[in-house]
Each structure stands twice: as C-alpha cells, then as structure tokens.
Write a structure and sequence with these properties.
There is one protein chain. The protein is an all-alpha fold and 397 residues long. It is built from 16 helices and no strands. Helix 7 packs antiparallel against helix 8.
C-alpha cells in the first residue's frame, strides 16, 4: 500500500503540474499584487533594488528561482507557484490518507481541492499564499504522521522536528502560518495532558524545540539569505528592525477599498473577484464542504474523532484569525487555506455515503460531476482565455 500511495502522490504532482502550467503565461500583465512580488523577486536576482520588505523573503526567493529558470516573463513569474500548487495537492492527498486510512477518499479530497477554483487561481499567480499554504500542509502531513502511524519514537521525533521546519518555512513566506502552528501546539498540549497518541513519550523538551524553537530558527534563516544578498548585517537588531517594519506596514496600510471583503462574506460569496482572475469558489465544493464541516463538528462533539477534530480546528483558526488580526483590509483570496480543509471535510462526510445510491448513482460520483461542471464553467475566465473562448461556456455580466 505504501508503494501505491507514493506512486499516486507522484502522479498527482506530475498531472496537476501539467494542468496548472497550461496557458499560465496568460494574462501577460500583472494580476493583483504580482507587480510587488515580481519586483521583489527581481531584486533578489540582481542583488539591488526594492525587495518588497513588507513581507518575509522566502516566497519572493522562490519566485525568483522560477524566473531564473524560465526567464523574466509571465511564465517565469508563475512557474514556482504552479510547482507549489501541485505540491499542495500531494500534501492534501497524503494528509487525508493519514487521517482516514482510505486511498479513494484521499484522492477525492485532492481532486476536490483542484476543482475548488481557489487552488487553480492562486497557483497560477506570482503571489505569496500558494507558498505558505504548501509548507503548512506538508507540516500537517508530518505532524499527523506522528499521531497516526506506528513508528519508533526516534522517527516520531524526526517527523515532529520536520513539522517545525515546514512551519518555519511557511512563516518565512507569510505570517499567517502562525495561526495553524498555534493550533498544532494546542493539539500537542491536548494529547500531552491526556497522555495519548504517544505525544508524552516523545519528551517535553523535544516538543518545545520542535513546536517553538525550530520554526523560529528556520524563519530567521530565511532573513539571512536576504541579508546576504543585499549586503546587510545579519544581527538581532537587524532582524527586529525588518520584522517591525512588516508589522507596522500591515497595521497601517489601508489597502485598496474596492477589494475589501469582510471574512464573514467569504463563506457563501456569489460574485467573482474580477481583479484576481475571476476567482469564485466552486459552489459545489466550498458550500457543500461547509455543510460537511458542520457535520464534522457534530461528530467531533459526540466522539472526539481525530479527523473531524483536526479539520474543524484548522478551518476555524484560519477563518477566525481575521477577527483579531489588526489589518484594515481583507480580501476574498485570503479564504484559500480554509477551502482546503473544506475539501477534506467533504471527503470525510462523503466516505459514509459510499454504499448509498441516489437515482442509481453514488453520491460521490454526483458531487464530482457537479463540481467538474462548475469548474469548467469558470475555467475560461480563470485561465484568461481570449475571445471567443473566454465565454465559451457562458459569461458573467
């Protein structure tokens, strides 16, 4: 089974990357905030200029890597994002498999994530979210392996340390990584106090190092690359200065009012974000996934089941963070990480309907067909196809 899962993960990566790269050079102009991050990436390539210091450096370094390989052009700007979008799908497949121990449901979750519109759009623009979410999901894969697999304590410790590295890398792309890391720390405390899932046997010191110290050190090392590239001193004072600038920028920067979208409107939004490749969540996936999440909450309250509990927790912290984050503007694409957990919640709930029939068809098949139709309807605009193909399946007014 391990060979089958590994081969499938590789196939998911190759096939999804081929799909995401198809026509990725369109549009030829900057989408949303690409201009800021591509400019920052150029600065890393030349060692001079404006490096977009209002965000941590790692995502811009990765974008620069794509530009180094494929050139300073729309394809090069977006190449790294497509690679990381495919890696995210692999992580979703593996994480769901670890939670449910079910190969088909793991594939279902990955396929729903590909169809949810968010991953397709965000993996095809040179922005930060695709990178930090990839590291978060791989961190969850490592962490969940610690909780669910029959491993030696040495391997559990290694995986837990790898969890810390992944979250440190995610934070070095975008600070929002911290909320999921905090949720992971909460889970660690919960199982440590209950003396279950082998967490206490790992050792208190290892837990503290993996969840707190390793992410912090990994995060700081990304700034060492920035300091080295721009000939700045890598000191504690410099680190504090750079991070205080990031904090002040996000607290004080108002952002574009036209794109402001309160977090509570994201769940059932019905109009596309035209400035972001006509992004609109697939109603079948994100609305159905939200209903599935409510079922997961109910199941968790009854049985404290691990899959339902983790999906509910990670969705909740990624959505409700926007209640407390002191940022003046929020945008619809910030809902992206939440939609991933909705896809997994959908797979969890649909797993209980595998033997049922509706009009002679399994519910899973019906959902996949409906989600595919909605995705195809949105595809021409999301992929920036030119006339007459942009409205081949209908147009938004």
């Amino acid at each position: 089974m391990e060979n089958r899962v590994g081969f499938t993960g590789l196939a998911v990566f190759v096939l999804s990357l081929s799909f995401l790269l198809l026509g990725i050079e369109k549009p030829v102009y900057y989408v949303m905030d690409e201009v800021a991050y591509v400019t920052g990436a150029r600065a890393f390539l030349t060692g001079t200029g404006y490096s977009n210091p209002e965000h941590p450096p790692l995502a811009k370094i990765l974008i620069a890597g794509g530009m180094k390989l494929a050139g300073d052009n729309p394809f090069g700007w977006r190449l790294a994002g497509a690679v990381f979008g495919s890696l995210t799908l692999v992580a979703i497949f593996l994480w769901t498999y670890l939670l449910l121990d079910n190969y088909l449901l793991a594939l279902l979750a990955a396929f729903l994530a590909l169809l949810n519109n968010f991953l397709f759009v965000i993996a095809r623009v040179a922005m930060l979210d695709v990178f930090y979410v990839t590291f978060v999901m791989w961190g969850l894969v490592a962490f969940t392996a610690v909780l669910t697999l029959d491993l030696s304590f040495g391997r559990r410790r290694i995986l837990l340390l790898a969890t810390g590295v992944m979250f440190g890398l995610g934070g070095a792309c975008k600070w929002n990584t911290i909320v999921t890391l905090a949720a992971v720390a909460l889970v660690v405390v919960f199982f440590y106090l209950r003396d279950s899932r082998h967490v206490r046997q790992i050792g208190f010191a290892t837990l503290v190092v993996a969840v707190l110290l390793v992410p912090a050190v990994t995060y700081c090392l990304a700034f060492w690359i920035q300091c080295y590239r721009f000939h700045r001193p890598f000191t504690a004072a410099e680190l504090v200065s750079m991070n205080m600038f990031i904090w002040r920028f996000h607290v004080n920067c108002p952002g574009p009012p036209a794109l402001d979208s309160p977090w509570y409107r994201w769940i059932f939004r019905t109009s596309p974000e035209r400035g972001m490749s006509y992004l609109l969540g697939n109603f079948v996936v994100v609305w159905g996934g939200f209903l599935a999440l409510l079922i997961c909450v109910w199941r968790f309250c009854r049985s404290l089941a691990l899959p339902e509990g983790l999906v509910t927790l990670f969705y909740g912290v990624n959505l409700l963070q926007w209640v407390v984050i002191p940022q003046q503007r929020t945008m619809y694409y910030y809902y992206y990480p939440c939609t991933i957990f909705l896809c997994v919640a959908f797979a969890i709930v649909l797993g209980a309907t595998r033997e049922r029939r509706v009009l002679g068809m399994r519910p899973i098949v019906i959902i996949l067909v409906m989600a595919s139709v909605f995705f195809l309807y949105c595809y021409p605009r999301m992929a920036a196809l030119e006339a007459p193909y942009d409205c081949a399946l209908g147009c938004w007014n």
